[in-house]
Amino acid sequence: MQQNRKSKHRFDKGAKNKDDAKKPGNELSELWPGQSVELLKSLHILTRDGKLNQDSRRKLKQVQHLVQAIKPHLEGLKSVADLGAGKSYLGFILYDLWLRERPETRLYAVEQRKELIESCKLVASRSGFDRISFAPFSILEATQAKDLPETIDAVTALHACDTATDEAIAFALKKDAKFIALVPCCQAEVARLLQDEKSRESRPIETLWRHGIHRREFGSHLTNVIRSLFLESRGYKVRVTELIGWEHSMKNELILAEKVQRGNKQAKAQLEVLLQQIPLPMRLFDLAPPEDVIN
Questions:
Q1: Is the pLDDT of residue 17 over 50?
Q2: What is the CATH number of domain 2-287?
């Protein structure tokens, strides 16, 4: 009980700053109602003087938009795993704006860099966030880690580079996640596979990736098309949209997936046809657990 009172005091201190932030011309007016100024200072998103630089503003907007996009899907869920958490900007802001009012829900932040884990533990302790657990694993290691529950309701991965997003999908499937939110980053695997994909007879479709710049762009697009179809084939309803305006980030594609059925034969057939036209032995297919039999 003492810790809860301490936590409340800290957030009240932030709230006093937030009242000042509402004054016209104050750049902190960009913060959401109820958002802790003190937490953002601890994360070095705000300076000690409460200022935002351009890089921090972009970072804050990305995380805020992602929190806004996923909050409606989290209602009623008891556990959330943030994979490749880094400095846990997403986890901390999600806790601040949503999770701290839901005592039945717990957050697991998975990050393999131990120095980041230690710094995040300090921020969590100072903020009174007692329902965050920090797991010092890679995403692949976390899939088998005994420190994490056998099932996790929701999985997020913000800017997980290249095949790390596929590892996040495999983790979510293994944990039987009801909801998945992905913001992929640096999709390079398919571009490499396309470069190696040379049929015996020249095909018109190969002109789509003949030039290097086209191969990178088309490969990135094709990667997320395949990921979306794959999730649909596993019974998820998928929505793909922009995370935020392009002026804030070029890594801007948001994949939201909500489990609605055991599987989808139509999506599986569409994926098989696509892979017949462009054979791609993506790592995703090796990482993902076997699918259930669909009746």
A1: no
A2: 3.40.50.150
